[in-house]
Amino acid sequence: MAYILSLDTSTKVCSVAVHHQGELIGAQTYHLQKSHSNLLPVIIKELVKNCELELKDISAVALAAGPGSYTGLRIGTATVKGLCFALECPMIALDSLESMSAQVRRFAAPEELLCPMIDARRMEVYGRVEDISGNIIWPTAPIIVDESTFDEFSGKPLVMFGNGAEKLKELFAHADQTIRIIEGIHPQAAYMGEAAWIKFSAEQFEDLAYFEPDYLKEYRTNTPSQKFKV
Description:
- By secondary structure, the protein is α/β, with parallel strands linked by helices.
- It has helices spanning 36-50, 70-87, 98-105, 163-166, 193-201, and strands at residues 3-8, 13-20, 23-31, 58-64, 91-94, 113-119, 124-130, 136-144, 158-161, 179-182.
- The longest helix is centred in the middle third of the chain and has 18 residues, at 70-87.
- It comes from Marinoscillum furvescens DSM 4134.
């Protein structure tokens, strides 16, 4: 009886889910900016209780480990590490883009290529390209997007989704290749169950002491302008 608690804090969407051997039991999702640190402890407790479980029943905790928001990933990582230490259970790390692909695979056509994207500001996204079976064609990486970025897929139907794709609608409005952009797809813990169960079954766990989120690029802060210096 393996119950896996999953958390995703990689974007402004904060979500928690409980799966039993890959099957969803319950989930909570909040689209609230900068609220992860306040929400997580409360919704974890509520969700586990509403699933008629106790925290001691959890067999593992899965985390959307990046890419995504630096702050969100740090909050999620700290929360999961604390839970795993306290419960003496293993930690599972998943690519943050995986839960978006899991949503779209349910209705995408067999010939379509999937391109989940998370906004990385300006014309940069965190993205990857895979086929409908989940075989990776472009691995997850920071991508600076222009009109020619996806030319190698010309003639192939490409489905883009996530908040990184939504900001590219105008860029690809008149593209030669077949590009479809789906709005309203976000990383969500409810769709982490199958991938988490596969890793749990294979005992692909993380080292709690040394694990770090997959930021993909170094954290940078802007130097304040002169008028804001004190």
